[in-house]
Amino acid sequence: MGINLNKSALIIVDVQNDFLPGGALAVGDGNEVIPVINQIQDKFDLIVATQDWHPSNHGSFAANHPGKEVGDFINLNGVNQYLWPIHCVENSEGAGFPESLQGQSWNKIFKKGTNPEVDSYSGFFDNGKIEETGLGDFLKGEGIEKVFVTGLAADYCVKFTVLDALDLGFKTYLLTDATKGVNVSPNDTIEAFTEMENKGAILIQSNDLP
């Protein structure tokens, strides 16, 4: 495929305890991305991670809306919001990174979902495009032109991170064997892969890296 890793960054999206088996919002087989991500980190000069970091009163939590259940939708600050179980509450064990994920060479961690009034799937912006995390400016300030996206979950936070990276002008690769989906509906991950590819993302596997 002839991939050149010059001026590239690895983005590790939300590989946190609550999204792993046994967590509050577990992604099926989510733990399987960890050895893949660990194996490829030494190929990149710049590595960033995103971290879901919600206040306990976050508007995306079904428990904060009496009479609502997980899976219901509400209008949250003008955005049609899917209601989730309580997860990745700031400073909780669930919001932390698993010990098995190697983070010693990460350059920076970008927290997201900190505003209770709007959810934030993407590592770059919240869902209403009201606030930025600073990730885009950081990458551009470092001279990054290509990003390689991994993590959880393929059909939500990974997908929106990929789409925003494309919108910001980065050549964007998705490592399909280093992501897993929630699959609220059975085909969500496959459909997310198709949507990302149609928007310009390049779908590869970790063994395609030089």
Automatic annotation (TrEMBL):
Enzyme class: hydrolase
Pathway assignment: Cofactor biosynthesis; nicotinate biosynthesis; nicotinate from nicotinamide: step 1/1
Gene Ontology molecular-function annotations: metal ion binding; nicotinamidase activity
InterPro entries documented for this protein: Isochorismatase-like_dom (IPR000868), Isochorismatase-like_sf (IPR036380), Isochorismatase_Nicotinamidase (IPR052347)
Occurrences of domain Isochorismatase-like (ranges): 8-207
Keywords: Hydrolase, Metal-binding, Pyridine nucleotide biosynthesis
Origin: domain of life: Bacteria
Keyword field contains Zinc-finger: no
Gene3D superfamilies per record: Isochorismatase-like (3.40.50.850)
EC number: 3.5.1.19
Sequence similarity: Belongs to the isochorismatase family.
NCBIfam families attached to this UniProt entry: PRK11609.1
Protein name: Nicotinamidase
Species: Cyclobacterium qasimii
